[in-house]
Amino acid sequence: MTFPSLAPSSRNFNAGDYSYKTFKSQNGSETRILYGDKRTGMTLDLSYDNIPDNQADDFIAHYDDTKGGFETFDLPAGFRAGWSGTASAIDAATGNKWRYDSPPVITSVRPGISSVTVKLIGVL
Amino acid sequence: MAKVYTGKDGRLLIDGTEQIKVSSWTLTGSLEVLETTTLGDSQRTYVPGVQEFNGSASLLYYNDDADRNDAATALKKVLKVSGITSSDTVSMTLRLVEGTANHDVQLTAYITSVSFGASVGEVSRAEISFQGTGALTAVTI
């Protein structure tokens, strides 16, 4: 199954960085060596507040489908709900795909209603 | 027939017993709502959460000819030497009467606070607050 195509209640995107190493000499000057030409390590935290349990369990089903954090996947456009900038700006950068950074967390709010938080990380 | 209800029509029953010398009661029902607004929505949306019922009443601290004092009985639901247990609930019926018809809201509640005192030139009265537990048991308003 694909990642649930729900509009999140909140979204937190961290753009990640390019792979480079910094060397600092004794006089304080800095040298950086770039090891790749692709940005990676972007993170995406999504919250889905007060959704029906039968939608909340879709996240677990998807988590099982991807063998937890083992397999990578693309996200449906629904996760960008409310974003009017360039779509790719808050998605996995070129060459990257998403995987689970930690297991989805389901908080039961009341009978039949739960909130879900998902933490994803972009990897090459 | 048109009818305006006043304090004269009000009754308060605790555990099925109509309380004597009640000067007021109030009942508040509320509903917690859970926000379901998502990114991209322009208006907030909600689903119903849990309900809550609570209220208060004021009774004169009064002994009738048979030495019955309902205010004291209510006060002793909280003012007691032993602790409060889960069996210390009362059945509250808040009623407006219209001839032989009763308009009731009935609930199971804990009496959560009581206060009473004496002041020069004033009638002593007991103020009680109650917190409903569980669903309403009857609504005939």
- Total helices of chain A: the number is 1
| Assembly level | heterodimer
Distance between the termini of chain A: 22 Å
The class by helix and strand makeup of chain A works out as mainly beta
Rg over alpha carbons of chain A: 18 Å
Q: Greatest interface and its residue counts?
A: A-B, 16 and 11 residues
End-to-end C-alpha gap of chain B? 16 Å
DSSP strand tally of chain B: 8
User: Can you tell me the CATH class of chain B?
Assistant: Mainly Beta
* CATH architecture label of chain B: Beta Barrel
Instruction: Indicate the overall shape of chain A.
Output: elongated
Strand portion of chain A: 35-45%
Largest sheet of chain B: 8 strands, antiparallel
User: Which fold name corresponds to the CATH topology of chain B?
Assistant: Elongation Factor Tu (Ef-tu), domain 3
Whole-number mean pLDDT of chain B? 92
Order of helices and strands of chain A: EEEEHEE
Element order of chain B: H for helix, E for strand: EEEEHEEEE
What does this structure look like?
The complex is a heterodimer of chains A (124) and B (141). Chain A is mostly beta strands. Chain A has one domain (10-123). Chain A is 10% helix and 40% strand. Chain A is built from one helix and six strands; from the N terminus they run ββββαββ. Chain A has one helix spanning 53-65; strands spanning 10-14, 20-24, 30-34, 43-52, 97-110, 113-123. In chain A, the strands form two sheets. A four-stranded antiparallel β-sheet of chain A has the order 1-4-6-5, with helices on one face. In chain A, strands 2-3 form a two-stranded antiparallel sheet. In chain A, a hairpin with a 5-residue loop joins strand 2 (20-24) and strand 3. Chain B is mainly β. Chain B has a single domain (7-139), classed as Beta Barrel (Elongation Factor Tu (Ef-tu), domain 3), CATH 2.40.30. Chain B contains one helix and eight strands. Chain B has one helix at 70-75, and strands spanning 10-14, 17-18, 22-35, 46-60, 90-98, 101-116, 125-132, 138-139. In chain B, strands 1, 2, 3, 4, 5, 6, 7 and 8 form an eight-stranded antiparallel β-sheet that branches. The longest helix of chain B has 6 residues, at 70-75. The radius of gyration of chain B is 19 Å and the shape is globular. The two termini of chain B are 16 Å apart.
